[in-house]
Amino acid sequence: MSERKAIRPYHHPAGGWGALKALSTHLIEQGIPVKGAATLGCMNQPEGFDCPGCAWPDPKHTSSFEFCENGAKAVAWEATAKRCTPEFFAAHTVTELSGWSDYQLEMVGRLTHPMVYDAATDRYLPVSWSKAFSIVGRHLKVLPDPNMAEFYTSGRTSNEAAFLYQLFVREYGTNNFPDCSNMCHEATSVGLPQSIGVGKGTVLLEDFDKADCIFIFGQNPGTNSPRMMTNLRDAARRGAPIISFNPFRERALERFQAPQSPVEMATFGSTQISSQLYQVRVGGDVAVIKGIMKVLVERDAAARALEEPAVLDWDFIRGHTVGLEALAEDLKATQWRDIEQCSGLSREDIEHAAHIYMRAERAIIVYGMGITQHRRGAQNVQQLANLALLRGHIGREGAGICPVRGHSNVQGDRTVGITETPAADFLDRLERRFGFKPPRAHGHNVVTALEAMIRGEVRVFVAMGGNFAAAIPDWQRTRQALRNLDLTVHVSTKLNRSHLIHGRDALILPCLGRTEVDVQASGPQSITVEDSMSMVHASAGRNPPASEHLLSEPAIVAGMARATLGQRSVVDWDELVADYDRIRDAIEDVFPIFQAYNARVRAPGGFHLVSTARERIWATASGKANFLVFDGLGEDRSDTHPETLRLSTIRSHDQYNTTLYSLSDRYRGVYGQRDIVFLNQHELEKRGLADGDRVDLVTASTDGLERRVRNFRVVSYSFPDGCCAAYYPEANPLVPLYAHDPVSFTPSSKGIPVRIERATANDASGDRRQSGE
Ligand SMILES: Nc1nc2c(c(=O)[nH]1)N[C@H]1C(S)=C(S)[C@@H](COP(=O)(O)OP(=O)(O)OC[C@H]3O[C@@H](n4cnc5c(=O)[nH]c(N)nc54)[C@H](O)[C@@H]3O)O[C@H]1N2
Ligand SMILES: Nc1nc2c(c(=O)[nH]1)N[C@H]1C(S)=C(S)[C@@H](COP(=O)(O)OP(=O)(O)OC[C@H]3O[C@@H](n4cnc5c(=O)[nH]c(N)nc54)[C@H](O)[C@@H]3O)O[C@H]1N2
Ligand SMILES: [Mo]
């Protein structure tokens, strides 16, 4: 953390020695070099715990330890020797802590006691669990309408905790489940079912071994799902082309040195990953995809006229899809001039990519936030589905669509009922199993919850994990709304910004982490999670809890439920929490896809949840897979001001969402700072700016409100024209709450129109900016 500010290009491959060095620094910083290493040995092992980092699957959870720098950092972050104790809170008022940076807050260490806010002293004071639960119960019981409370979930929560949480909240009477996935892959959950009938990916890990080519749109595996690098490296070494579309030349998409490979490590060798890396404009993906599809459709027509083999998979298209005619019409009408302008790529480049795609018998299409976090995110996803369908790449071995999920159990939380739009048959089964009437009206997602808060219609906010106040858009308005609440409750492992932006009453409820032993009445428990490829497996911690006062997430949910619902509850909360097998039995009763849950999850590697699309069964209204047309090419046609740039908010290599491991971003050559904006030399010169200048970024808002971040350093970088990038969460004040996909409500964090002005204030304090004040 003593790293000096610098911008210094990184010339090494991703992974390798640089990763090992970074990790050892991090372990020492957390005070756990020895324990950390032992803990890491149990990660993703048959009897160990699931990595709390990303949702990328591990080869059957049976292999030997696979080194992953960022997974290791996530573990070390949780297994730290540092503690955030009542003495710490006694020594610092909330006002004082509000001036600390996000990095400083989490570095205090693991929370040890339940704490309640005391307005008289402006401090958090220790409180007993029973008192804490009764405060929750008191506030929830007096609300005239259960819909005046919001129940947030962050995707680290286990299936067991998530199921109990939705049970409690639905018995209480609302479907208000804003969820981190509303800011993440909601575009997938909403967009993909219309195309192929499921809102999840269709590939398994073994498909990566069989793919002839892999296309990666807007996803940064070297940082955000590093275990995927093993699969990409294997594919590259067997000669399968990997084609990436990303405004950044992300290092891991270029070159990777495998820490697992003694030869690469000893010889300082590396593997070239992408055969082509196209620097697409921010928001230019649909233009690329349409360009590729245009080539496919035209070449197919030409080939068939000459009686050569078809390019499209006509058996599949005729047997399994509808809507190709309309798509082909649209592609015909789409001009190359517009495709080039919107994507920032040449026709030649796009044709080249199309030819690689055309030649592949089995293609995997991978994507991440570069596709989903846009104003037309759900439609972006559907265009990728079109591309896969044209050549029958769904439901074929070695091929498919692969959304890379974020949090380690964000997919599982959805599967077990964390959704603001529950299906009627799920609610019917819940009602039959438990005997209460769940609410039928749809609830709030993140955006609509914040809108309701701003209108003053919400009184209580409960968060199962996460750091809501930092992850959300439009801080100036949304944080004020959080401050106006009667009660905020955070189930957390570490101190974060959300504890400081609190309601009149506020609770911090500290929970066990995934690396820790969870003992209940029947003995030690394991929890279960679902990865990005719908594999469900068990996870059991080994470390002693960070404090004897911690409760597990399921126990905390049960405590809140008992205090809120009391005698009127039809659920025996104690019985369920005593033995998590009983929670899994209940999940199985409500969700038939979990049949024989307890037995199957005990098999090494767990089990796969069926995906209909993988079996070429189409759970859509038409009963077929649907080709869907995207009107036009661009994201948003309203702002054509020549000064406007498209801002993409991105992650550094040293952060986990709002958690900062350091202020550096090694692969992009940034050290000791995060208040920076990347843009290319051409855009700089147009504005009379130079590398190192200080600027303000100002949103081109349509509602008349000013959204500005101050005094960012300009970094001249290889980046497409017309766009720029800055780090999340520092740039979140620039994302207007109204800027979201109208279909999936995903905030457009990767496509905000901004202007750049010379800095108005010469204030170098990052803290004030980070706290958004
Ligand atoms: N270490 C670590 N691991 C993580 C996380 C973390 O913060 N740290 N977060 C977790 C979570 S919750 C998630 S959702 C995932 C996120 O993982 P990713 O999906 O990889 O998310 P980002 O890093 O936000 O952005 C992805 C990439 O999109 C590119 N990009 C930006 N705009 C565009 C665009 O318009 N088009 C295209 N084609 N590309 C674009 C960026 O340059 C970046 O390389 O990772 C998960 N894993
Ligand atoms: N501008 C912009 N905004 C974004 C994004 C972006 O790319 N750009 N990305 C969005 C995405 S993809 C996501 S997923 C969200 C993330 O939003 P969140 O999921 O809300 O945020 P995190 O930073 O992952 O939450 C970190 C906190 O989780 C708590 N925690 C960690 N482990 C545990 C645990 O085991 N149990 C419990 N109960 N708590 C735990 C700790 O207290 C920690 O401080 O942010 C979104 N916001
Ligand atoms: Mo995410």
TrEMBL record:
Residues 645-752 form the Molybdopterin dinucleotide-binding domain. GO terms for biological process: cellular respiration. PANTHER family: PROTEIN YDEP, RESPIRATORY NITRATE REDUCTASE. Belongs to the prokaryotic molybdopterin-containing oxidoreductase family. GO terms for molecular function: 4 iron, 4 sulfur cluster binding; formate dehydrogenase (NAD+) activity; molybdenum ion binding; molybdopterin cofactor binding. GO terms for cellular component: membrane; oxidoreductase complex. Its EC number is 1.-.-.-. This is Oxidoreductase. Coiled coil: none annotated. Residues 110-490 form the Molybdopterin oxidoreductase domain. SUPFAM superfamilies: ADC-like (SSF50692), Formate dehydrogenase/DMSO reductase, domains 1-3 (SSF53706). Its cofactor is Mo-bis(molybdopterin guanine dinucleotide); [4Fe-4S] cluster. Keywords: 4Fe-4S, Iron, Iron-sulfur, Metal-binding, Molybdenum, Oxidoreductase. It comes from Bradyrhizobium ivorense.
